[in-house]
Amino acid sequence: MGSSHGKAILLGEHAVVYGAPALAIPVPGLTVTATAQLLPASAELGEFTFTMTGSGSERVVMQTGDGLRLLASEFKKTAGITDSPQISVRISCGIPPGRGLGSSAACARAVVLALADLFDRRLDAGTVFDLVQISEGVAHGRASGIDTLATGSPTPVLLSDGVAREPKMRFDSLFVIGDSGAASLTKHAVELLQRRFTGKPGAQAEFVHRSEALTRDAVQDLAQGRIADFGARMTACHELLGSVGLSTDRIDALVDAALAAGSPGAKISGGGLGGCMIALADEPHRAAEIVTRLHKAGAERTWVVPTGRFLFHGC
Ligand code: PMV
Fold it and tell me: Comparing C-alpha atoms, which of 106, 93, 102 is closest to residue 177?
């Protein structure tokens, strides 16, 4: 068996594909479990069979099916498996797909770990990363690795200059995630941005530069305990992503609702063109108010991710 969890990006999505830093948190309440099993040899079945359960699992299969097959055959090479056993992998995915919550990376990670377990192989973190990235490359078109890292980390992840580390967090907070109810493909969002940049000289450099400055400043805010400033950078990042066409009316309405409820900052989270938004809350009562307002503004679902001392608050 192998398991993994969801993630949410706080700052830097899309720009991270072009080498800028990005910051993400794990969403441990959204989980994926994969179970791999050897099957008796049968001519009708391919080498690998993937079965998915969970809401919207057809969409996960659509997004990740080819990538999972690729990573499974690469796993065989890495693990030195030379014969062709028939393998069935069942994936139970509790992460809603197409919402920027890391369903594709989490499924891929769970599959890699399940295959390693089945063949009794110990894979180091770098090998797991490389295998998951094979599948992510198919799902995103170009994958930065931030989802691959955050879906395997128990703590927040800062990916900067190709290196992942845990950022210093000097304030305790809660993050409220609101689902707009509209699914989208990360690949389409990544391609949309590529096309936009192709037509406008200098636009890519400007976008990446502004995102990089926001993320670097936000990391300082986090380390210095400046929650209001951190929130303001999140909202500025939302405006930046909106300015290149990645937000939607529904997401904008949810961001406005969170800010009206007293959130220090809110933004779209992940690939965009639908999916989820994320709002910062300084206290549990504020998180509860944001949840209420998000539902009134049309959120299909919400999740609260506590950090620091609020982890033990029972919210
Ligand atoms: O999987 P999503 O929709 O959260 O997108 C991940 C973030 C991107 O920057 C859009 C893509 C990437 O690989 O970094």
Answer: 102
